Amino acid sequence: MSDFAQYQDLVYANATNGELPRLPYDHERLRDLAEQAMEPGPFGYVEGSAGRERTALANVEAFSRYALRPRSLRPRSRDKGGLGVTLFGESYPTPLLTAPIGVLEQVHDRAELAVAEGADPVGVPMVLSTASSTPMEEVAEAVDFWWYQLYWPGDDELAESFVRRATAAGAKAIVVTADTKRLGWRPRDLAQGHLPFLRSQGTANYFSDPVFRSRLKADPEPDGVFTEAVFHFLGSFADKGLSTDNIARIRAWTDLPVLVKGVLRADEAVELAEIGVDGVVVSNHGGRQIDNSVAALDALPEVVEAVGERMTVLFDSGVRSGADVAVAMALGARAVLLGRPWVYGLAVDGAAGVEHVLRSFLAELQITAELLGRDVADLDRGDVARR
Questions:
Q1: Is 351 among the domain residues?
Q2: Does residue 174 lie in a domain region?
């Protein structure tokens, strides 16, 4: 077991030698530093959400409605607060994954490769976005474990190509995002006129794909604006008729576990379980798609109750601390995808910033688990109460 809590000891030890931390441990302070480091358009793209941003706010506030219930005198746990989990038959040292966030070239010039350098040393797998700035095969060479997130395009042959490429490159799972049949209404992006895809950003997997390229008259221009490739990308980005019928077809393309991300209702989770989907990610896209949607954490117990015995339930949206991870896992999530915090670390300090954020979350999570007297994989509803 990796003792992530020792990170706290190292910080204090370094401080006694006059070496104070370079980055903050408070999310809001790190976000402020990221805003200073980024251009207004890219920062608004990452920080912003749909409409009046009520969903994003609700995601964060929801964690205050759930309280952890320590039991100080529990019998000694097998790993003393161990963080290891098993997902789809694979052992992972932690229950954290980096959420699939696209267009990272607008955050840092090394994009996903910098994320890999920060996440891999702490054993946190990447969930690579379809809209990444680096082709999936290059990312695969830089990490030990990674999953592939699919935005299902309007072209089914392209969807198949993406899945087959990810499988061949060594992905451990396919995560289909279901809540992005089109981009949500995002006032911050509109005010800046900022849509990075129009500048050929976030298109690396498309422009490197043989099926996508076969649809074009000329080779894509990597830095092109308003080119044929850009317009074809925009026209094929999402299948507005995405349904369980589409998702069921993945079984013919890969033998990897298949998850669906963007599930907030028990009835939809049950439908997915019935067609043999291996897992769901309870998520509202961090509030980026629908304003005034249900907070993802409030939807988690309903989904777990409906399908938790039949499929693996994961969670994202609104997680801002290691204690938040513990709450989500106590409510039934088997693992948690973390988004904006590590992106801000990437903006401020590249790979080192990503590693700083992930180590901080894991240290707090392990300390929280030890103080609860639990291993995170064993957290359950008895460890959390609704306030």
A1: yes
A2: yes
Which amino acid, residue 221? E
Q: Is 81 annotated as a binding residue?
A: no
Q: Is 319 annotated as belonging to a binding site?
A: yes
Low-confidence ranges of the chain (pLDDT < 50): 1
Instruction: Verify whether residue 285 is a known catalytic residue.
Output: yes
Give Cα 330 to chain centroid, integer Å: 19
Looking at residue 115, which CATH number applies to its domain?
Answer: 3.20.20.70
The pLDDT of residue 60 is 98
Closest CA to 211 of 280, 157, 271: 157
What would the two tokens of residue 211 be? 């099926």
**In the predicted model, what is the mean pLDDT of the chain?**
94
Q: How far apart are CA 56 and CA 159, in angstroms?
A: 29
Asked whether 376 and 367 are in contact (CB, 8 A), the reply is no
| Residue 223 falls inside a structural domain | yes
Q: Please, are residues 337 and 330 in contact by the beta-carbon 8 Å criterion?
A: no
Residue 74 DSSP one-character state: P
Residue 102: which domain range? Answer: 6-386
Catalytic one among 194, 232, 285, 356? Answer: 285
The response to whether 244 counts as a known ligand-binding position is no
How far apart, in Å, do the first and last CA atoms of the chain sit? 33
Q: Any known ligand binding at 74?
A: no
Q: Give the tens place of pLDDT for each residue, 24-46.
A: 999 999 999 999 999 999 999 99
3-state helix, strand, coil in the chain (%, to 5): 50, 10, 40
Calculated CA dihedral for residues 276, 281, 284, 285, nearest 10 degrees: -110
Cβ(337)–Cβ(99) under 8 Å? yes
- The secondary structure of residue 286, as a DSSP letter, is G
User: Does 145 fall in a domain?
Assistant: yes
Counting the structural domains of the chain, the total is 1
